[in-house]
Amino acid sequence: MKKTFLLTFALLGILLMGCTPTPANNDPMNNETINTIMARRSIRQYHSLTVARDTMMQIMTCGINAANGQNKQSWEVRIVDNPSTMQHIQDLMVTGNPTLQADMVRGCMRGAPVMAFIARDLGYDFSAYDCGLLAGNMMLAAQSLGVGSICLGSPVRFINQADNSTEILALLNLSENYELCLCVGFGYANESPAAKPRDINKVQYID
Ligand SMILES: Cc1cc2nc3c(=O)[nH]c(=O)nc-3n(C[C@H](O)[C@H](O)[C@H](O)COP(=O)(O)O)c2cc1C
Fold first, then answer.
1. For residue 106, how far is its CA from the centre of ligand 1 (angstroms)?
2. Is 198 touching ligand 1 by the criterion CB < 6 Å?
3. What's the pTM value of the predicted model, to 2 decimals?
């Protein structure tokens, strides 16, 4: 009788333990995802070495697995890793922005050897968020693979406002009703910038 009671008690204990949610890894110092997020920094100095296409494909696969509104995947991504194509785009950007300093326009790419041009579907009001989440996933995946990255808004401005924007956008082969929204540069970091300060007071609990 005593034995049966003990066995039932032990079984109940095991069952209860199974139902209690235990985080896979709640030690923030020893959590790869948290370490990757905290280690990522915007890189503005790159080695000239490009990023292999299979590595970029891994990064892109993580990008397209981002949460996105209604799974519409309201983005298009065009990757440029050919130095002469990159140069050509920069030349067009310079020509299309005659009032701006050429070095400033060229420099907006931050010398990243690989550039992802991300466009949003103008027919979906949440597409800019989709593109942002896609870019975030791509940068974190890159970080975890030892690839540096930078999210860039200025090339978007310089392309969209350029006199020859139609020509540049045609080169990117975007679908109709898609608008260039964000760029993300990738490459191997030639600098290790410190984290910029963050203000945790922007986050508040409301009781
Ligand atoms: C939407 C967006 C646009 C950005 N545009 C530029 C840019 O045009 N040029 C640049 O050097 N950095 C740009 N950045 C990078 C930010 O300056 C950088 O993320 C920020 O200073 C925080 O630094 P961290 O990424 O190293 O943590 C951009 C970042 C975001 C998210």
1. 17
2. no
3. 0.90
